Amino acid sequence: MPEYIAVAAPGVTLPVLPGEWAQRAFVELNEIPEAAVEALHELKLRIADDTELHACTDDAFLLRFLRARKFNISKAFTMLQRYYRMKEESPELFRIPRPSERLHILEMNAQCVLDDRDHNGSRVYIFRVGQFKKFTTLAAAKKAQPLTYQQPPTETYDEAKVDTSLVTVEDVFSTNVLALEHVVREPETQVGGITVIVDMTGFGLQQHAKFLSPYYARRTVEVIQETFPLRFKGFHVINQPFYFDAVFAVLRPFLKEKIRQRIYLHGKDLSSLHSYVDQAILPVEYGGLQSEFDNTRWRQQLLELEQEFMELETFGYKHQDEINDKEEIDLL
After folding, report:
1. How many CB atoms lie within 10 A of CB 206?
2. Running DSSP on this structure, what letter comes out for residue 226?
3. Which helix (H) or strand (E) is 75 found in, with range?
4. Mean pLDDT of the chain, nearest integer
5. For FRET with 7, which of 55, 88, 89, 103 sits at 20 to 30 Å CA-CA?
6. Strand (E) positions, the chain?
7. C-alpha angle with apex 62: 57 to 68, nearest 5 degrees?
8. pLDDT in tens, 116-141
């Protein structure tokens, strides 16, 4: 392969990947520095042609989409459009929430990106869905009294103060999106992808009905297959109840064969999980060699990036009144 060097063109600066990651990007994603510069330039031209779209055009941001679609510019642009459309159509699910506004969810210690990558270089995200014991509808939550977290984000909250009846499926969904937005910032993760472990310990029928309704099932699949600029390398479900296969059938019709082949149901067989995810990086609860599951450090990382997440949400599709105002200015 060509040596991976810093390459620049008018309006484009290509970030440099470390050597071994550059090699992987070349082999797996067809990434060649000179061609990547041309692809970034072409992608920016297509964004400019979409007058309704006010997209972030930072080179590092756009590379996410090109890598996710192996530098097929048309597919990358379509994914970018879908990414912003989903935020417009379902903001309660897909707009990046402020970490400080979701601290009551994060402190339930149900979600975490592990410190270390697996043997394939993938980030590992653990989602302990059974930790969320009660759910209400979004409409009911809006009618309820708002959560009162006035302390600075660095303080520790008393779990007894967390009213889980106000935790919505939308809250959980959006914090999962927040986790994805966090890891996709890393160029290495754009190449190596993400592996997801779903621990269903304590997951009951009521939660099944909400999480795996056709609506949420379809939205979840959209994120994985069409919308989010990240390579999903595997989904490992553990401790699932005996009836999970029947419920999982709700998802199956929406899944492409490629994704179906990356879903593994391990039950309580942790040795089966270890054949895909190294014990060396897993918490002790999962038969690993690390300390107990604790998302404190990851949670703090999210809080420190709050301003960056807020800036990302200043982009998106323009409302019609904004377009009309611009057209009037252009005519002056």
Report:
1. 11
2. I
3. helix 73-89
4. 83
5. 55
6. 8-9, 12-13, 53-54, 111-113, 123-128, 194-199, 232-238, 263-267, 316-317
7. 160
8. 999 999 999 999 988 875 443 443 34
